[in-house]
Amino acid sequence: MALRCFIVDDSPHFLTAAQTLLEREGCAVVGVASTTEEALRRMADADPDVVLVDVNLGSESGFDLAQRFQREATVDQSRVILISTYAEEDLWELLGAAPAAAYLPKSQLSAIAIRRILDGTQDQSGPRSP
Description:
Elements: E1 4-8, H1 12-24, E2 28-33, H2 36-46, E3 50-54, E4 56-57, E5 60-61, H3 62-71, E6 80-84, H4 92-97, E7 102-105, H5 111-119
Parallel strand pairs: 1-2, 1-3, 3-6, 6-7
Antiparallel strand pairs: 4-5
Protein name: Response regulator receiver domain-containing protein
Keywords: Phosphoprotein
InterPro entries: Bact_response_regulator (IPR050595), CheY-like_superfamily (IPR011006), Sig_transdc_resp-reg_receiver (IPR001789)
């Protein structure tokens, strides 16, 4: 069964590239959004296995969106993966407080990396370790 992914990013170029990459690797991209409100609105119908959320959504924050997912019980934090072009070290403090399964640099985005995070087999320090 294909992994059902939802992607939240304010870059149309990245959304297209990520969707193409993940679908080529056997994932089903069941939705995309570029803003917090759009993501919340589309999430109910999409029923994804995982939500990839860019930490920087233009004038909005992906960290805030992850917190809203948790508060509003829209998505369990074990299914949220924060993504960004920023180095993980630059985001330690924010990642440590984020209700998310992990952080994945955009340059390492792949179906295998997502599955490893969801399965708990990715060898990484994760967002909760300083």
